[in-house]
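Co-fold these.
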Amino acid sequence: MKVPVSWLKEYVELTLPLDELARRLVFTSCEVDRVVRRGVPDVDGNLGHFVVGKVLEAGKHPNADKLQLTKVDVGGGETRSIVCGAWNFGAGATVAVVAPGGVMPGGELRIEKRKLRGEMSEGMILSERELELGTDHAGIMVLADELEAGTPLADVLPLGDEILEIETLYNRPDLTAIYGIAREVAALTGAELKPPPGVDPPRHGDEPFSLQVDELDACPRFIARTFRDVTVGDSPAWLKARLTGAGMRPISNVVDITNYVMLALGSPLHAYDADTLRGGIVVRRARPGEELVTLDGTRRELDVRDLLIADHERAIGLAGVMGGENTEVSNATTSVVLETANFEPLTVIRSGERHRLRSEASTRWEKGVDPEAAELAARYASQLLAELAGARWTGETEVRAELPQPAPIAYRPGYADEAVGLEITEAEQRERLERLGFKVAGDWTVRVPSWRVRDVRRDVDVVEEVARFRLEDVPATLPRRQAMFGRLTHEQRLRRLVADVLVGAGLYEAYTYSLQHGDPDPNALELPEPLSSQQRVLRTTLATGLLGAAQHNLDAGNADIALFEIAHVYLPPGPVPEERWRLGGIVQGDFFRAKGIVEAVFEAVHVEPTWSRVDLGPELIVAAAVQSGWVGTYSPVLSLDGEWSAFELDLAELFELVPERIEYRDVITFPPLRQDLAFVVDETAPAGELMAAAREAAGDELREVRFLSDYRGEQIAPGKKSLAIAVVFQSPERTLTEDDATRLRAAIVKTLGERFGAELRS
Amino acid sequence: MDSLAAVDWTAYETQATAAIGAALADSELEDARVHWLGRKSELALALRGVRDKESGMLLNGIRGRLEEAVQHREQELRRLAYQHAAERGVDVTIPGTPVKRGRLHLLTQIRREIEDIFLGLGYEVWDGAEVSTVWENFDALNTDAGHPSRSTLDTFYLDDDTILRTQTSPDQIRAMMTRKPPIYMVSPGRVYRRDTPDATHSPTFQQVECLAVDRGITLADLRGTVLQYFRLLFGPEREVRMRTSYFPFTEPSVEFDVTCFLCDGAGCAVCKHSGWIEMGGAGWVDPDVFRNVDLDPEEWQGFAFGFGIERIAMLRHGLPDLRAFWENDIRVLEQF
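Predicted complex below.
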C-alpha cells in the first residue's frame, strides 16, 4: 500500500523523522519497501520556480500550426513568453507556470530557456500529469481565476508528497487503511491519534429505498444511502493528488470519493447511478446462466455460488469484488446510491478465484474488514459527496444481522515474559494495548477492538501485540537442554556415503524435477491441475529426469557426461503414494561402465551384488537386474546421441542388505598361489555363474576369482567362447603347495565341466 | 673340495666387489649379482658342496659381504638417479596425472553444511514424505480456511485431501505425533508451490525448517539459535534481527534478517543497500499447533524457523538465476 505522508499527518502527528519512523514500523507493524518523494522536488529552492501565471496574450505560433505562442504575467511585474502545445486555454486564463531553472517531478528534467521554432520560450505552462497531480494530459491545468499572478504554486496545489510504500501482513487488514496506519504510528510513538474523519452532512428527507439481503451470513451488513442533485465532474487537485499518490487513478469526483474513503478507513464502498437501478437492491446468490459485465469491461458467466449485488431484474455487481457496467456512475449521473457493507472473506475469496479477478476492494474483504467501519465510511463519503459533488443526502436504509461480539480475553501479563524471554512491564503492556484500541480491565480482561477481532482471539495473540514493539530488545539465549541427540540416522549416513563414492567415481550430482512430462508407469500419479505439460506426473523413476539432464549437457557441448541423483520417487496407488529414496545414474559409455559404478556402490556398503539378465523394455538393449535395482544400456533409437547407460537402485532396499557390523578377517601371511585358467564353453554360459561355481567348487582356499577375458573367434569353435579367469589360492593356515594348487584346480575344472560343459584350454 | 681348491676366493671377492661397484644401472647390477651371487654362480655351487665348517665360514662370509655390496650399490644408484634427474631439471609445473572427480550438487553441499551445523547444535535431521495430507500441511498448522496458501492457485492438489507439501512443516507434525518432547529437529527437503518459473521462483525448491520443543522455550531462545546458526554459516561477525510477521503456526511470528555477509552491513547490491539480508520466517509455536498434535501447551513450548536453501546458495555464490540449479550443466556443477 502506498501511504501519502501528508494524508497520514491528518490523523497523527509524526514525532519521528520519516526514515526513523519507517525503520521502526518494519520491526513493529509492516514491511516498508521504501520511502519515495513524488511530485516536484523540494530541494534548493526548486519550489520557487513554480508559480501562478495569468495569460496576457495567446495566439498561433508563427512557424508552427500546432503550437501557441503566449505572453504570461508571472507576478512581480515580469512577463514571460512561453511556447505551449495545448489549446484548451486562451488570453485571460490562470495557469501553472515553471520558470527556467525549475526541476520537474522525477528530478531528471530541468526546464531551460530555449528557442522553439524560432521563438524564445521562457518556461513551461503545466498540465496535471506533468505535476503528478493526476493523469490528465489533454491540456494544461486551468486554475481558479481569483488566484494572483506570482502566487507560489505550492500554496495552492499539493506539489509534492512523500510516500511510504508498505506491505501489509495477512493478519493486519487494519493496515490497509491510512487511519489504521496512523493508529499504529500513535501506538509506536506515543503521539495522539485524532478521531476518525467524517461527519454526516445535513439530511434532506427520508427517501424510501428497497433493500433486501438474502444472504446475511455472507453479507451481515448492508447500508444504502441515497443522494440527489449530484454533479459529477473532476475531483479537486488535492483529492487527485492524494489518489495518485496512493497509486489509484482519479476518475470522477463520485468514484474518487469512494476510493478515497476506502483508502482512509479501509472499508470498500461502491456508488451506483440510482436512475439505472431497476427497483432497489437485492443481495443474493447468482442464478444459473446469469451474466454480468464488470467495470473492467469483461463479460462474466456467474457461478451459483457467487454472491451478487442485484437490482430487481439483474446482477449489478460481484459482491466485494467489482461493480457492474450497467449501473456505473457517469457524467450524466445526478442520483447516486452509495453502498457500504460487510462481506465475509471466504465468499469474496472464492468469487475472486472463480473469476480470476482481484481488486482494491476484494483484497481488503479477503483479509477481513473492520465490521464497524461501514458506518464510518458511509458518513465520511456522504460528507465528501456533499462538499465536492453538491449532493443532497436524501435517505438511508440498512439491513444487518447481529454483529458478533468477541469474547473478552483473560490475559496474564507474565505470559509475555514466558513467551518472549524479555520482561515487559505491566505498565508498558497496558499502555501499548490501550493505544492500539484494546480495553484492558483492572483484572487484565482484554477487550479487542472491532478492527482486530479476526486476528486477536486468544491470550497468546495479546502477547504478540505487546511483543512486536520490543523485538529489537529480545536477548539471544539458547534453550537450556536436558538431553542432547544430534546424529544422522543410519540411512542418512549411508546416503551420504553413496553420494561421496559416486563423486569419487567421477559422477556429478543432478537435481531433476519430481514432476515430469511423462512416466513409464501408466499408473503414476498425475496432477489434476498441472502448472505445465512438462511437469504433470509424479515420477516413479529417476531415469526420466536424468535423461533430460543428460540431453541438456549434450546440447551444451559438454563431454564425458556422468550424472547421478538421490531423490524420492512416488509409487502409486494414491492418493498418498509410497515415497522411496532412489539412486539413479546416467553415464556416457557402455553397460560395463555403469555396472562398474554400481559395483563400487555395492562394495562401499559391503553388499555382494548378484547379477542376472533381465528385460526392461525396448528402450534398454542390455539390461541386468541386481539387488534393489537395475543397470542398462539405452537403445540407440533414443534421441540421445552416442552410447548411454543408466542405473537405478532403491536405497532403502539396498540398505536393508547392509551388514550391521563388519567382522575382522585376519590378514593372511602365507603366500598366495596365482593361476590363470581359460575354459572353452557355450557362448550363452554367463561368466558370473561360472565364476560363482568355481568359487563354490574350490571352497575357502579360493581367495579370489577375477574375470580376465571373453574371447570368440579364431581357434574357438562357432557357438563357443573362451572365458579366462584368474584365481588366487591361499590358506590362512599354511603355505599351499603345487599339489594343493593342482587339487583345487581340478575341482574347479570338474565342476565347470559338469555344470557348463566347460573344457579347460591347454 | 675340488672346486673350493680350484678357485682363488680372495680374487673372486675382489673381482665381484669391483663388478658390483662398477654397475651403472639396475640391470647391470642385477647381471653382476646373478653372475657372482646367483644360483649358478661359482660361489653358490661351492656353497652347495661345502662339507667342513672352515670352508663354510669363508664362503658365507664372502656371500654376506657381496650381498651387502649389492644393497649398497642399489641405494647408490637410486641416489644417483635422483641427482641426475635434478641436474636435468624436472619441469614440476607440468600438470600431474589427472584424477577424475565428480561433484556434489551445490544444493547438497549447502544442505549438508546446514545439517552439520544443526547436528552440532544437537538437532536431528528428518527428511520425510513430500506428498502430504491437507491436514498435515495446513489444518494441523493452524492455517485458516481462507488463507491464500491453501488456494489451488498456490498449491498442487492431488485430490481434496492430498497435496504436494508447500513447506517441510508436515515433518514437524509427524515428529510431534510420533515421539515425546523434547524434540530438536531440522527438516530439509523439497517443497512445491504453484509459482511460474523465473529467475527467483521455482515450483520446486528446497527448504529447511527447524523446530525445538521443550520446557520453557522462548522467543529469546529462537533469536539465540538463529544467531548461532548464521554465525556458523556466514561467519562469527554476523548479527540477526527479528521483525514482526505473520504465520498461521507461530505466535508471535517474526521474520529474521542477518547482517550482509558480503559488505558486513555497510550496504551493497546484494542487501539492497540496507546492510541486512532477509533470511526467513520464524516464531514461537502457536499453542493451538501443540493442541492439534495432542501436546499440552502448558507443559511444552517451542520455536520454529524456516528458510530456503537455494536463496543461501544464490546469495553466497552470486548465482543470478534459480533455474540453473535444475539444468545440471556440468560447467556449472563443477564450479563448486
